[in-house]
Amino acid sequence: MVIIDLGVVKYVPDTGEAEVLRQSSAMQLDPGYLSVPQAIEFPTAGKHSAYGFFYPPQNKDFTPPPGELPPLLVKSHGGPTSAAEVSLKLEYQYWTSRGIAILDVNYGGSAGYGRAYRQRLDGQWGIVDVDDCINGARYLVEQGLVDGQRLCIDGGSAGGYTTLSALTFHKVFKAGASRYGIGDLETLANDTHKFESHYCDSLVGPYPAQRDLYYARSPVHFTDQLNCPVILFQGMEDKVVPPSQSEQMVAALRAKGLPFAYVTFEGEQYGFRRAENIKRALEAELYFFSRVFGFDLAEPIEPVEIENLQL
To answer: Within a 13 Å sphere around the CA of 6, how many CA atoms are in the beta-carbon half?
Structure first.
């Protein structure tokens, strides 16, 4: 049994005494259910390399049928110039303990790999990040680690933009989930908060001088190219990525007749904060993928209404 105890400890070097001043939580986790991430490097567009952390499925109580490979969920981090880090993410363990592999991608532009790597995203948001997520998934398929017919992708905010772009402009992923994701870069440039009001100038180009780029890289304008199911999550008081972003995508998905679900949370702002909403979003996403890929759930989950789904 692994005990993970988080808190503030007073340590006296001279005596070796330690006193717990504040304990935030104490979790007892059986390592038989824990997936240990593996750092990977894989080839991507432009003869570059990209990086990520691969979490294979892990559950000591179950083994897959002979010859069956697991579905893969690609995680596209937000920022977009932040980074995926290795730490205990219980959300990831939720997926891997249920037989779904995860690839947490540090696409070009992510921090932590040097200036040149960070600058790969300059003017290329929606291109480099998407290519790297796709090529990371392809790499794992080529290595025989995941099922190439059950690839999905998710992300929040900027990661939601990468997700929607990957689903719209490419045909690799079979389903996706966007949490308060960006579907329209022009709306983002006009409506986002003051702190990030010119963030896109370096990531896409000066606005409105290069408005054509903002249009060309916005998934909401090209839903005619989207051909796979999507679930969207949105906080209704979000001032960073306002509900209008998700609502534009919902209108386009409904008009095209694609399978989709739209889950909203009243009172939530940017990034879900309430425990019940975090739990609901996680379970709803798993329920959605279970319906799309046709696998049984290990425990009952409150259903999500999926429009246009025909199985």
So the answer is: 5
Contacts 24+ apart (CB under 8 A), 277-286: 281/179, 281/233, 282/91, 282/94, 284/231, 284/233, 285/154, 285/177, 285/231, 285/233, 286/94, 286/95, 286/98
CA distances in angstroms from 108 to 112, 155, 189, listed in the order given: 11, 16, 22
Buried b (16+ CB within 10 A) or exposed e, 200-218: beebbbebeeeeebbeebb
Cβ(102)–Cβ(92) below 8 Å:
yes
**Are 126 and 233 contained in the same domain?**
yes
* Residue 261: C-alpha distances to residues 8, 50, 285, 302 (Å): 42, 32, 10, 14
Same domain, 79 and 168: yes
User: Tens digit of pLDDT for each residue in 122-166?
Assistant: 999 999 999 999 999 999 999 999 999 999 999 999 999 999 999
The region of weakest confidence among 99-108, 189-198, 243-252 is: 189-198
Cα separation of 113 and 179, whole Å?
26
Diameter of the chain measured on Cα atoms: 71
Q: Are 20 and 141 members of one domain?
A: no
Q: Do 52 and 109 have their domain in common?
A: yes
- Provide the residue range defining the domain that includes 100: 34-293
According to the model, what pLDDT value does residue 207 have?
Answer: 85
* Residue 200: pLDDT band with limits 50, 70, 90: confident
Tally Cβ neighbours within 10 Å of residue 48.
16
Structure tokens at 48: 């570059």
How far is the C-alpha of 255 from the C-alpha of 155, rounded, in Å? 24
